[in-house]
Amino acid sequence: MPFMYRRPEAVLFDVDGVFRTVPLKFIHHAHMEALQELAPDHRLQRHARIITELRGSSAFINESRDFIELLGHVALEGKKAGQVLRSLHRSRQDTDRLRKFLHECRVANGIPERLGRAYARYRALREGPEGQKAVRTIRTAIKGLRRLMRAGIAVCLVTNSSKAPVLDWLQKEGLPQVEVLAKEDVTFQKPDPQGIQVALARLGIQFSSHVYYVGDQPNDIEAAKRAGVNAIGVATRGRWAPLAASRPYAIFRHVGEVADHLLGKTSTIKKVDGVRVSTSLSKA
Prior knowledge:
The chain is of the alpha/beta class. It has helices spanning 24-35, 42-54, 64-77, 79-91, 95-109, 113-127, 129-134, 139-150, 163-172, 194-202, 218-227, 241-244, 255-262, 279-282; strands at residues 10-13, 20-21, 136-137, 154-158, 179-181, 211-215, 230-234, 250-252, 269-272, 275-278. The protein has 2 domains: 10-22 and 136-282, 3-Layer(aba) Sandwich (Rossmann fold), CATH 3.40.50; 24-131, no CATH class. 38% of the residues are buried.
């Protein structure tokens, strides 16, 4: 049985990881540069490699902000943190223990000012000329977006990134008319639902069960649920387990598949552990 009974009133999207990707090599480079604000320490870099690997199996540390904060606490906690990370690395599944450890660190240390500087340095690299040069547009996603727009469906991009680089990118893609709601437009960022709520207000939609938010991270799914709209995950790199843990309405490989499904065209999904997953992912 299809999960869509009516054409959508609006479809909102995250940007990075949905329409654009950045090579992991550059992201690692940006992380390492940001870590210089925390501690120019080789041990910290070893811990960074461990956490990078853990990100593959944990829905908890997919966001770079979580990654950098965790490394900051590692710098403060020293030997104890190293022991916890090595244990987690061996098990590769103990997300609850990692979450508990980070909570304990926050209670003990707060969020040191240098963590904010480190994340600011990371964002400056990602959104600066070097980072924008590294961006790769996902063509199937752009085609899917265009199909939704041609069908007369309202669309908006809701991102935690700065607005100017996203507008420049849309201009290059020939889509300057697409509405963008960025971090400058809100007080609270995802997973807070404010961005989605403001976007719907701008589109003139108060509430509808036929609104969808499409993202590639667990915090996108959480924001959509808290805003009362349908959450759809896209697993651009094929890794959908962290998204499934957030229980979205469905998970697809890319926006092209999302557009086909929402427009009532042929698409195949099946339930895997209670989550609707595109067969292009579940067979991978």
